[in-house]
């Protein structure tokens, strides 16, 4: 994955679905998989970076530190941001759902709590 293929946002992030706190960053990136017929399907995945939930992950820590900098993310930091986002996405990109959490979130959605 190249940095150019990643669409990342800070200003318009949804709340974290795990803890409901504000997210630090969302990133949308290309993803492909094989369908039941064996053909490749091209699509997109989205990952959300949460300072509370992801703060202990090795690839998230430097990214969260940079995003939390008092100086903000200016031109000098942008050169560091791309590789940090790419490393973080490589670590989280192959996550599979935690079925218990997914069922609980679906129940919350059906109950109108989301």
Task: Supply the key terms.
114 residues, alpha+beta, 3 helices, 33% helix
Overview of the structural elements:
The protein is an alpha+beta fold and 114 residues long. It has one domain (3-110). Helix content is 33%, strand content 20%. It has three helices and three strands. It has helices at 60-67, 75-92, 99-110, and strands at 7-9, 25-34, 40-49. The protein is globular. This is DUF6300 family protein. InterPro entries: DUF6300. Pfam families: DUF6300 (PF19817). It comes from Streptomyces chisholmiae.
What sequence of helices (H) and strands (E) makes up the elements?
EEEHHH
Instruction: Tell me about the largest β-sheet.
Output: 3 strands, antiparallel
Helix content: 25-40%
Radius of gyration: 16 Å
Tally of strands: 3
InterPro entries: DUF6300 (IPR046267)
Organism: Streptomyces chisholmiae
Protein name: DUF6300 family protein
Task: Please give a quick description of this structure.
This protein has helices spanning 60-67, 75-92, 99-110, and strands spanning 7-9, 25-34, 40-49. It is α+β, with helices and mostly antiparallel strands and 114 residues long.
């Amino acid at each position: 994955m190249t940095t150019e293929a990643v669409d990342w946002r800070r200003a318009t992030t949804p709340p974290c679905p795990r803890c409901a706190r504000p997210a630090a960053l969302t990133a949308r990136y290309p993803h492909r998989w094989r369908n039941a017929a064996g053909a490749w399907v091209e699509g997109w995945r989205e990952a959300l970076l949460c300072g509370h939930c992801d703060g202990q992950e090795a690839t998230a820590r430097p990214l969260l530190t940079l995003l939390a900098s008092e100086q903000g993310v200016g031109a000098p930091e942008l050169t560091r941001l791309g590789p940090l986002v790419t490393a973080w996405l490589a670590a989280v990109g192959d996550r599979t759902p935690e079925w218990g959490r997914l069922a609980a979130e679906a129940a919350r959605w059906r109950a109108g709590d989301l």
